[in-house]
Amino acid sequence: MVKAYIASGIFPGASFAIVNGSEIEKYVIGNDSLKPEIRPLQPDMAYDLASVSKVVGTGTVVINLIFSGKLALDALLTDYYPDFEGGQVTIRQLLTHTSGVDPFIKNRNRLAYDQLRVALNQVKITDDKSFHYSDVNFILLGFMLETIFQQDLDVILQTQVFQPFGMTRTSFTAPKQTVRTAWELPRGVVHDPKAQVLGVHTGSAGLFSDLDDLVRFCQAYFSDTRYLKLLQNYAQADDMPRSLAWDILDETSENGVQWLIHTGYTGTFLMINLVTKQAVIFLSNRVHLHDDRLQWLKNRNLLIKLFVNLMKIV
After folding, report:
1. pLDDT < 50 regions, the chain
2. Is the peptide bond between 82 and the residue preceding it cis, with omega within 30 degrees of 0?
3. How many other CB atoms are there within 10 angstroms of residue 103's CB atom?
4. Which pLDDT score, from 0 to 100, does residue 37 have?
5. So what's the pLDDT on residue 113?
6. Into how many domains does the chain fold?
7. CATH number at residue 186
């Protein structure tokens, strides 16, 4: 199916790994870029993770603080981050995208860093607590972490996640061997416009990583039994069950939630089964030549179903 998607132009290439306990299979298929020249993918290439950054970075730090008793799930954001002026919202609501945040910021893409940060601290919290996915939720969580640790977010992620997990090639700074996203962007420039401005302070996107590091990330989750507590619905809204930071995959077992997943705009997704210790890491550069998001969503959902069914028989 991956080769068929490449042939039909859904994405130029893909790198993916199938993790089954200690057994790991890696595949690298297709091209890194088609413009301005055709370049084949290499096994060690890093990708722009887009929103997969939410679970690999900020989400995992916040989860660890909650599970260690250092952060109260139902505390107000302003208990830890008093600079926020938009209203009352809890850590749980931010993690599950049920915050009621109104993410609209006038002329957002024209704002410099200081201006955008002020605007984000003033976004309004509405009374609508149904599920509405928004990067702003995790940007605010990232700001909160910087206040708690009194460090920039990139330093926090390195010391709290990447170094303990043995991840040496995950960073806000793209390594030399990085897959190109949109062809009009220079190689190594993050695709997300908010991350372009916020840089190392972005809690929602902006990380670059490769298959090897993301395999280490999954194995770290497997080895820590605390993460089994993620296998439940934490959202208080009735319309969309969510774990903390992670989405709950519809394809669950008769024993309840098993698969957690997060996707990224650039053509990435990470799905992990903490019960069977299985994972699928899928990295592509689907925004390289064109951005047909609706078609990608259909193709991505088919890929996810394929991988879920495959993992039942491996």
Report:
1. none
2. no
3. 17
4. 87
5. 97
6. 1
7. 3.40.710.10
Find the domain containing 234 and state its range: 2-311
Q: What is the 3-state secondary structure (H, E, C) of the chain?
A: CHHHHHHCCCCCEEEEEEEECCEEEEEEEEEEECCCCCEECCCCCEEECHHHHHHHHHHHHHHHHHHCCCCCCCCEHHHHCCCCCCCCCEHHHHHCCCCCECCCCCCHHHCCHHHHHHHHCCCCECCCCCCCCCHHHHHHHHHHHHHHHCCCHHHHHHHHHHHHHCCCCCECCCCCCECCCCCCCCCCCCCCHHHHHHHHHCCCCCCEECHHHHHHHHHHHHHCHHHHHHCCCCCCCCCCCECCCCEECCCCECCECCEEEEEECCCEEEEEECCCCEEEEEEECCCCCCCCHHHHHHHHHHHHHHHHHHHCCC
What is the Cβ-side half-sphere exposure of residue 93, based on CA atoms within 13 angstroms?
20
| Measured distance CA(120)–CA(81) in Å, rounded | 13
The CA–CA distances, whole Å, from 194 to 1, 200, 202, 205, 293 equal: 33, 11, 8, 8, 19
- Angle CA 274–279–280, to nearest 5: 155
Give residue 13's pLDDT.
96
pTM above 0.70, yes or no: yes
Segment 145-162, tens digit of pLDDT: 999 999 999 999 999 999
Tokens of 286: 């689907």
pLDDT of the residue at 143: 99
pLDDT at 254: 55
Contacts of 183 (CB under 8 A, 6+ apart): 33, 34, 35, 36, 288, 289
Dist CA 192 CA 207 (whole Å): 10
pLDDT of residue 225: 97
